[in-house]
From TrEMBL, chains A, B:
Its main location: cytoplasm. CDD domains: HAD_PPase. This is Phospholysine phosphohistidine inorganic pyrophosphate phosphatase. Belongs to the HAD-like hydrolase superfamily. GO terms for cellular component: cytosol; nucleus. GO terms for molecular function: inorganic diphosphate phosphatase activity; metal ion binding; phosphatase activity.
Length: 272, 272
């Protein structure tokens, strides 16, 4: 019988999905800093027979610029391997003929260059950071409250993340704020949405049970992946907090010190 | 049998409680503007045999400055008749020996002059308006997430209010944001808290069924008062929206065009 526990389950894996911020690097001033051992760990995965994708809720930069940053940090990574929420959101806008009011980071705006934003009939919020001013949040609120059927898309629903100078509030916090202000439920594009994870699995041509997600966010990485049928392993880097290991509803399949340790355990199980 | 419906119930009333912003005046540049007929309506209530109190979630100024503003607008009103959340919050801090980190409007800070704010072990948020910056919200978040037992007080839980230049997000929106970020439940001080309404009733020496609340906020004024056992009448001024009259869970005992109309109906029923 196949071992379905961690790390035994690594024997039957066909692909690995990695979160980026908090797993490969810590964001902060400039490009941020690579987490010890993570550059080498990505190299080892690429040299293995496992497929590799990167699934992120990063919305502070276009995919191109974001990947260029990771390359500068020393990671062997290319644009087609990285799945952020913005391209998925643009697909939804086209499908539903929606014109967004954007409350996103300046760095993400070019991603929406081709999108009609006149006379908006929905709002998209991303991790706008300093742009989450009272004035900007009011503006997004007024667009929503003025619509007959207000539609709010949130690029992820994270609570907070860690930068080199401390914890910072993430987009989910402002999603909850606007949900309450307008008495509506936002549609989340990005992790932990099953649709989002499924699009990554589709790209690899794998079934959920053939893939493993490794992230620092217990709810959005681990819980989201598990809800989708994958295994989920949490690293003790990034936004990890010891209380995650006693969470009442989500239990990781495994908890490891960092990505390097996770990759070594996986490859060791596979005799590589 | 006594008429318990509106406006018949006015015959047996002993006191009236008025919300301020959106009922007496619309806030905005400078002192804002009095709502048509409201100055005269307050005069009429004062000349009647009804007790009168003002119950507000106003937290942008100290009670003294706030009342002075209302007097400048032409209202016959004095400090002891006005019940805002900040003095109630200070009583709770003293009782529970808590030291707050404050995320409130600059105008409210003097109210907390006598309060020990060193090494904070709770957070108080009020309607901080422009002070609800990303940086300030992060700061409040970091205080909370660093506490073993995080305690968040919210001075009211309103969604939005109307100023002369449009709708503005209220403190409740940021309360929900911090609740989600820290996975906690805030303690609300102010409307619609039953404790808060009860303190006003105690001051009048009345039972809930002897008093009527008039406000523009269906949930916090009308719903809160009803939950406490009072009648609640909504005015079609301030933040009123036509959809309030079809709300799934809260139905006002009466809906009137403005305070002037409400007062005329009350005094008419009482033959005054």
């Amino acid at each position: 019988m196949a071992d379905t526990g961690w790390p035994g389950c690594a024997k039957s894996l066909k692909g690995v999905i990695l979160d980026l911020c908090g797993v490969l690097y810590d964001s902060g001033e400039g490009d941020g800093v690579a987490i010890t051992g993570s550059i080498e760990a990505v190299k080892k995965l690429k040299a293995s027979d496992l497929q590799l994708r990167f699934c992120t809720n990063e919305t502070q930069a276009t995919r191109d610029k974001f990947v260029a940053k990771l390359q500068r940090l020393g990671f062997d990574i290319c644009v087609s391997e990285v799945f952020p929420p913005a391209p998925a959101a643009i697909a939804v806008l086209k499908e539903r003929r929606l014109r967004p009011h954007l409350l996103v980071h300046d760095g993400l705006l070019p991603e929406f260059d081709s999108v009609d934003k006149t006379n908006p009939n929905c709002v998209i919020i991303g991790d706008a950071a300093e742009h989450f001013s009272y004035q900007n949040l009011n503006e997004a609120f007024r667009v929503l409250i003025g619509l007959e059927k207000p539609v709010l898309f949130s690029l992820g629903q994270g609570r907070y993340y860690k930068e080199t100078d401390g914890l910072k509030l993430d987009v989910g916090v402002y999603m909850k704020a606007l949900e309450y202000a307008c008495d509506l439920k936002a549609e989340v594009i990005g992790k932990p949405s099953t649709t989002f994870f499924q699009s990554v699995l589709n790209d690899m041509g794998l079934q959920p049970h053939e893939a493993l997600m490794i992230g620092d966010d217990l709810l959005n990485d681990v819980g989201g992946a598990q809800h989708c049928g994958m295994k989920g392993v949490q690293v003790r880097t990034g936004k990890y907090r010891p209380s995650d290991e006693m969470h009442p509803t989500v239990t990781a399949d495994g908890t490891v010190d960092n990505l390097a340790q996770a990759v070594d355990m996986i490859l060791n199980q596979r005799g590589q």
